[in-house]
Amino acid sequence: MMPEWLLVLGAIACEVAAALLLRRSDGFRKPLPSLFALLAFGAAFYLVSRALVSLPMSLVYPIWAGGGTAGVALIGILALSERRNPAKLCGIVLVVVGIVLLNLAEAGA
């Protein structure tokens, strides 16, 4: 895997971590989770900006946003006991399928 794509994966991981920390921040009333959430979001933006130096925005941004969305939704279901239902699972699948289609379209271009 090219180093630029590792930056994107790191950005997704940071975004997922930041979202989970936001949940723990209690509306920014708890300083430590709030600080770490902001730092994780900052790291995600930095990593995406570095990846965009050499990768197309039409791939990086949707992969980052979609990967983070699917990741947070899956963690919510698997680790935070959030309800799962067919619509939610279908939405996660559609996000992942959309990311795959974008990659296939770019590869064929």
Topology:
Layout: H1 3-24, H2 31-51, H3 57-78, H4 86-108
Helix pairs in contact: 1-2, 1-3, 3-4
Quick structural gist:
The chain has four helices and no strands.
Notable features of this structure?
mainly alpha; 109 residues; 0% strand; flat
Describe this entry's structure for a reader.
This protein has 109 residues and is mostly helical. The protein contains four helices and no strands. The protein has one domain. The protein has helices at residues 3-24, 31-51, 57-78, 86-108. The relative contact order is 0.14. The model has no long low-confidence stretch (mean pLDDT 94).
Q: What is the residue-averaged pLDDT?
A: 94
Beta fraction: under 5%
The percent of residues in helical segments reads over 70%
Largest sheet: none
Tally of DSSP β-strands = 0
Low-confidence stretches: none
Assembly status: single chain
In N-to-C order, the SSE pattern is HHHH
Radius of gyration: 15 Å
Q: Quote the distance from N terminus to C terminus.
A: 20 Å
Number of domains: 1
**Looking at the structure, what is the overall shape?**
flat
* Annotation field: number of helices: 4
Helices and strands: which structural class? mainly alpha
